[in-house]
What does this fold into?
Amino acid sequence: MRGILAIKRDQVAPFAMLAALAIALFSAFFHWQVLDISNVAWLLRGTDNGENALGLHAWLHDPAPGFLRTTLLNAPEGTGLLFTDSNPLLSALAFPLRGLLPADAQLIGWWLLVCLFLQLFFAWKLLDRHAPNPVALWCGVLLLAALPTLFNRIVHVNLMAHWLILWSLWRFTDPQRAASNRGWAVLIAITAFIHSYLLVMVGAIWASAMLERLWHDRKAAPRILAECAAILALVGAIAWSLGVFEPHWPSGNYGAFAMPVDALWNPGIAISTFLPAVEQRPGRGFEGFQYLGLGLLILLPLAAVLARRLPRPAAGSPDSLARLKWLVPALVTLTCLAISTYPDFAGQRLPRYHLPDNVSVALDAVRASGRLFWPVAYVLVFAGIRILYRLEPRRAGLFLAALAAVQAADLLPMARFIRAQSAEARGAPLYVRTASPEWDRLVAQAKDIAFIPGDVTKGLGVFQEVTWRAAKQKVPVRAVYAARPSLASNDRQNAETDAFRRGEVVPGRLYILIDGEPIPPPLMTRVRLLDGVTILFEP
It folds into this structure.
């Protein structure tokens, strides 16, 4: 790790360029006000990013926090930060500083900026020694780093850590780095503390490196397999610490978020300057989004033609792409998973190949399977840029500059669309659905807070605002929007909802009704409205 980030004197200029590009991309896609860690208003709007901020907020305010786990949410069982869409790695780094942070704190803005810098950094590491001139280098870095799929993850910012994929490719492309499981262990451990989908992608590239190593050094197979077992044990230990092995309800909808077959050239919504958008079926237009941008759509067929016409470097040459063939089994597998579904979802026959039911259940942990194509796209773009580097230097620079310009022009509508999603950071109030100051008094008086029904996705904006207040005052909330609801919590919440519907309430508990929940006749005279929200509270 130290070797990756070491800056030599002759690298000051490249690092300055990386910083300038990161700042330029950040300015194009986000408002600078998101870097104010006390600016939370743009997040608590019923989104996954609101849950991300809320999980960290609750953990930092928890009087008895567990390891990356809080009981202020989903009380009394509590929940792991992994399942609140929070960032376990970022949370662990922030925890020692909790005494210095404001009461209302978010780190998502800085996470976005750091992700952009690291994305550019690893793209640079992949291309630096191969580029024929600076123009070809930096245009290639932009084309490789700024894929539309990266910015599409603004609604779920942990998945903006695409730099982990580029880091794994950087390790893979060098035989010495690829053979070192110590380096892989660091990368895989970091990935496991960020997001499970990225872990699958990085793990596929690592497995490819181990396959190549086993093939060429069969005598070392026992040692290699032992190292692999140790890394798998490390992943298992991290998963256990994050609560992955606790009993959870399966989503039961693997394949609903598959990658459409036209995803590479169909943006799905109007975010392209040049190409028309054909609306995708529900669930696949976002998670299955894989639009490349017109610049890359020109690059890939151009590179395919040039690969056949230009002299191919010798297999052992540093400029050879021969090592990438070892990625083919993993990339084919990821592609098959990305486009796979099952015959009937929500009453619609989907035009994909279908997995057996037992396989679909086993793959529930990667139900948003359309995401799994990301490494394939990065490898294709990386290979395409490297092939263009075989051109005469001046021509390579001109081609890549033209492609970068086309790509930038094509993605201007996307930049405006993404930037608008952080517009409230410029000065919106923190609470818009629960604006009355009476909420603070009610929350402070409550022993705990229950939402009826317990599925808070039906009123997520209200839930996030009330729960933000509650966590700050250390009042437990008996519900949570979790990526994987636990069996015990689901049973408890159903029992509490049934009791309320019978007219049974717990003294000192603040009840908040969402999703048009009907008022039980015995409680009709005991409820009231506050900011249009039906509540019941009896101290």
Observations:
- The CA atoms of residues 49 and 156 lie 6 Å apart.
- The beta strands are 69-70, 79-80, 344-345, 348-349, 448-452, 509-513, 528-530, 533-536.
- The longest helix spans residues 196-216.
